[in-house]
């Protein structure tokens, strides 16, 4: 485990005097917590946010107006994603056991729904993702009796074509398809494992290519184009892996990360990839967000998003136009211009 030195440089890096970071807009849109978000990289300045009321707001960032409100789930929404093939399509998944597909031009009801009741009641979905060409959908479930399920559907028919249930022993927390290969998917769980599967294989045992043991529950991860994985654990650790190795290339605790920050880091928000680099967003209880960039085997502080939020930031999304969008417990959406 590496320690971080060089705290003296961090004081000059903030949104007020660091030229690569600028607060573009700030808008309170709700009295509820914003807990998740997704940007539409096919249509400029469109965002969807998830509220604690299980409502989804479709938002125009530039004009600062709500385009529509979607209410289609009876339990917590655990995933949201815009289609990369059809700009007007939005996916939402929930613990109510349904993944809805919405046409944002006419949102009265979902245009397609995926679910699985093959073992009794609908399985509650904790996460989902689509592969590169969006022909296949994958979702993970809570622990059901002694099993957690990874289920696959053919998007063209809405029918499940199988699943895995022997590779994890606890709730699935994150699934993500490879951004370079249609038939590769990675899954994470509270059982401390990230599993990587080759879906061209006929059995679950044969499909399991590699297992990364993080030794802590995995909350979320990012699988990059260079076949590396960055993840956040339930212990508030940041880990960086090669998908082909069995030990992390870098592991830092939240306390380690705080050493290279202007103030004490209270939570790790998310990891994401931009401009071929991995980034970590870490926040404080007062609403500031410290950004770090993965540089080889080091995590380097690159800027502070400050004077935007007044409470904990829960979600951060990267727009391909070099813009970050944040949402939090203050009900605000903030957009930031940043050179990454």
Automatic annotation (TrEMBL):
InterPro entries: WD40/YVTN_repeat-like_dom_sf (IPR015943), WD40_repeat_CS (IPR019775), WD40_repeat_dom_sf (IPR036322), WD40_rpt (IPR001680), WDR89 (IPR039328). PROSITE patterns: WD_REPEATS_1, WD_REPEATS_2, WD_REPEATS_REGION. The keyword Repeat applies. SUPFAM superfamilies: WD40 repeat-like (SSF50978). Keywords: Repeat, WD repeat. WD repeats lie at residues 70-112, 306-340. This is WD repeat-containing protein 89. It comes from Nephila pilipes. The gene is WDR89.
